[in-house]
Specification:
By secondary structure, this protein is of the alpha/beta class. It is built from 10 helices and 9 strands.
């Protein structure tokens, strides 16, 4: 499905997205999903998974602020999503900073997420390479991670989306790049994590590669729009939420490079 058709379908269907994300990102993720036209639910307790995950259109898992109870909920939700053929998105935030975090990320990847989304350093490290990441911030270029993204996609059957100044997405065979956005975006906390939640909304609406591509395009267009009015990171966030809602389906095709 073309990105413009996916956005129109997302707004018509208003899919419910289960967002297991971190404390820092919860509010931003919920606002991003709502502004784009879908419905977020921040449900992470393992005791609720069996009843809640099956009624969702998609699941997103972000490991930003890990703890043992949350990890249990993540694995239970991912396994339930697989059993029920529900698409799910994994965001392995800074998974290389500790042995515990790395193990959780790799074990989740082994469950074959529909989409893996991360910055260049996270994707390089997920493939076993040594990157230059610093915490949740990337120290590597998107170009440097393209081969790693293709390798992960082929090995795990996942679409891999790498975000940066120019985004890259691949399913191991086809690939695309997305331009636009604003250099203010990395200065606003949780926008990357919130993009993962939005990617779940798109994944609930159409095929995985198309969903990842449409999400990246939606973000880039909204970022460009917001930057035209923002005076800094604080005002950018407000204008960005507005822009996500204002973006029209036909806007998405202008930022995609095949």
């Amino acid at each position: 499905m073309a990105p413009q058709h996916l956005l129109a379908a997302l707004r018509e269907q208003n899919p419910l997205v289960q967002c297991i994300t971190n404390y820092v990102a919860m509010n931003a993720a919920a606002n991003v999903v709502l502004a784009a036209g879908a419905s977020p639910a921040m449900v992470h307790a393992s005791e609720e998974i069996a009843e809640f995950t099956p009624i969702c259109g998609a699941l997103t898992i972000n490991i930003g602020t890990l703890s043992a109870p949350w990890t249990a909920g993540m694995f239970a939700a991912a396994k339930t999503a697989n059993d029920k053929n529900i698409p799910w998105v994994l965001d392995p935030v800074a998974h290389f900073i500790s042995t515990y975090r790395k193990g959780v990320a790799q074990d989740l990847l082994a469950l074959r997420p529909t989409i893996l989304r991360g910055n260049a350093s996270e994707i390089l490290a997920m493939a076993g390479a040594v990157g230059a990441g610093k915490g949740a911030d990337s120290g590597d270029s998107v170009d440097a991670s393209e081969d790693a993204a293709r390798a992960i996609a082929k090995a795990h059957g996942s679409v891999v989306a790498v975000t940066g100044p120019v985004d890259f997405v691949t399913d191991g065979t086809q690939s695309a790049k997305v331009t636009g956005g604003s250099d203010i975006m990395p200065k606003v906390t949780a926008l990357g994590c919130a993009q993962t939640a939005l990617m779940g909304a798109y994944a609930a609406t159409g095929p995985a590669f198309d969903a990842a591509l449409a999400t990246l395009a939606h973000y880039k267009v909204a970022g460009t729009m917001a930057a035209q009015q923002a005076k800094g990171p604080g005002s950018f966030q407000v204008h960005f939420f507005d822009a996500l809602s204002a973006v029209q389906p036909d806007d998405l095709s202008h930022v995609i490079l095949s």
